[in-house]
Amino acid sequence: MDEKWKVSGTYFEGCNCTISCPCIFLNAPTGDDCTLLVGWHIEKGRFGEVALDGLNVAMATYSPGHMLQVKWKAALYLDEKASESQKNALTQIFGGQAGGHPAAIASFIGQVLGVSSKKMDYKADGRKRSLEIAGVLKAEIEAIEGQGGAEATITNNPFGVAPGYPVVQAKSKQISYHDYGMNWDISGKNGYYSPFSYQAG
After folding, report:
1. How many angstroms separate the CA atoms of 68 and 149, rounded?
2. Residue 145 DSSP symbol
3. What is the C-alpha separation between 14 and 93, in angstroms, rounded?
4. Does the N terminus or the C terminus of the chain have fewer Cβ atoms within 10 A?
5. Mind listing the pLDDT tens digit of every residue in the chain (201 residues)?
6. Cα–Cα distance between 17 and 118 in angstroms, integer?
7. How far is CA 42 from the centre of its chain?
8. What residues make up the domain containing 58?
9. pTM, entire model
């Protein structure tokens, strides 16, 4: 029987599209391709009897065109703090094998470049979000101020990582990623952050 599982917390992403990324509205990226980094910080989580609280996960994806019309390359990164049972659970969830929304995301992946454990440092400071993966990634985004000084948000977008939640529109301060032959140095481009909640079973 498949394990029951649920994870929730906060996520953020940054990509090379201009603000706001047209991919979440089922359109082609603003360039010829899309380089996308997504990070998840799990505040509460469980996979069967395995607790996942406080762990981080990230995925780097490359789409050589319209994200809904071509297959992506992807690399998955797991928090090195995780035990072997936790790593197995995170791989099943965020690799898409355990069902739920991550399985829908994984259906677009044509090539898995690798799954690795790394030291990961996630920070949330007001309207800023950052993630550092040792030797691989430095990423920082900051929310765009909307009317009345509130965060600018997008609600009910048809495609995205956090169904059911408004996403905060942000702008990248820095996304520097170098692994698997992919080298991205992005600033001043699109970013989002939001709560997330996934479950299955």
Report:
1. 34
2. B
3. 21
4. N
5. 468 999 999 999 999 999 999 999 999 999 999 999 999 999 999 999 999 999 999 999 999 999 999 999 999 999 999 999 999 999 999 999 999 999 999 999 999 999 999 999 999 999 999 999 999 999 999 999 999 999 999 999 999 999 999 999 999 999 999 999 999 999 999 999 999 999 997
6. 27
7. 12
8. 5-200
9. 0.95
